[in-house]
Amino acid sequence: MKGSNSKAEKMAKAVEVMINYASDNFGEKIVKEPFFMGISDLSYTGISEDQDIDSLASNIVGYGINYDLQLEALSMLDIPGVVFGGEGKDIHKNTERLNVKYSLDIVPELYKQIIYSLLS
Q1: Which of 7, 62, 74, 110 has its CA 20 to 30 A from that of 13?
Q2: How far apart are CA 55 and CA 63, in angstroms?
Q3: Global confidence as pTM
């Protein structure tokens, strides 16, 4: 999401409002990163116009063999989104831990703030 259209701009503004809300109300410092190094649900909401589809396909393990992603169809979508959620350590390891208070008490309030911002 690069803020290149009104939907993306509105989402980016909602995220900024949420970041300020997190700081002001919970003392939490939310850090934005320009990309997510993995596959998430948002991987199915579009491909940026500057993304080389062939390069993307060649970097997906098992693509075309045991995993298929409709890259051409995804290139026609333009759904802005943000990956945001709980906090913990050692994700996907046997030592994984979740910061329960943050993840269950604060994150839902931050999601509400994003939603309220988008609806206003």
Answers
A1: 74
A2: 12
A3: 0.72
| Cα distance between residue 86 and residue 103, in whole Å | 4
* DSSP classification of residue 102: I
pLDDT at 2: 59
User: What is the distance between the alpha carbons of residues 47 and 70, in angstroms, rounded to a whole number?
Assistant: 11
Asked if residue 2 lies in contact with residue 12, where contact means CB atoms within 8 angstroms, the answer is no
Q: What angle do CA 29, 32, 33 make, to 5 degrees?
A: 140
Percent of the chain with pLDDT over 70: 89
Domain spans in the chain, listed from the N-terminal domain onward: 6-45+80-119
Residue identified by tokens 């259209």 is: 5
Interval 64-106: pLDDT, tens: 888 777 777 877 777 788 888 777 778 778 888 888 888 899 9
Kindly give the residue spans of alpha helices, DSSP state H, lying in the chain. 6-26, 53-58, 71-74, 100-101, 107-119
